[in-house]
Amino acid sequence: MRFEWKADTPPEYRAAVEPLLKLWVWLLPNWLDVVFIEYEHKSGSAGTITRDRYRNATLFLRPALLEEGDYEREVSLVHELCHFCQGPIQSVLERFLEEAPDDKFKADTAEHAMEQVVSDLSHALVRHRRKAAH
Ligand SMILES: [Zn+2]
To answer: Is 107 exposed, middle or buried (0-12, 13-18, 19+ CB in 10 A)?
Structure first.
């Protein structure tokens, strides 16, 4: 597994994120060959696209990431790495929803549940790591 940084990533984002990625690389799933990392001027702190079929994913770093405190920034990144972990489930759900594109209720319910799992897991992981580090 390797990280590929887009050349125009602002250096302050790379400086803030690279040490955290080194700390959490063990969390990434075995199917993932490459994570592309790029800066994106959108709201929020981070985002992802997972292409499990092609064994790669993109991690988007967004402006609010550097406004967060250390704990929240770490949780935000671990949250996105958890999205990579559940990428295959997300793909299955997307295929199911392609068959019923008008069923927004199911799409929203699945999305909500996935976000909830990822949020709970990322907070638990970061709390545990920080507790173990002291
Ligand atoms: Zn999320």
So the answer is: middle
Q: Which residue has the tokens 């887009």?
A: 6
Distance from residue 61's CA to the centre of ligand 1 (Å): 13
Amino acid making up residue 71: Y
The span from the CA of 122 to the CA of 112, in Å, is: 15
**List of domains in the chain:** 2-133 (3.30.2010)
Residue of 40, 41, 3 whose CA lies nearest to 19: 3
For residue 80, what are the CA distances in angstroms to 1, 28, 84, 100?
16, 10, 7, 27
Distance 96 CA to ligand 1 centre (A): 20
Looking at residue 127, its pLDDT comes to 98
**What are the angstrom distances between the C-alpha of 115 and each of 13, 83, 84, 105, 120?**
24, 8, 12, 15, 8
How many whole angstroms from 79 Cα to the centroid of ligand 1?
6
Question: Which tens digits make up the pLDDT trace of 51-66?
Answer: 999 999 999 999 999 9
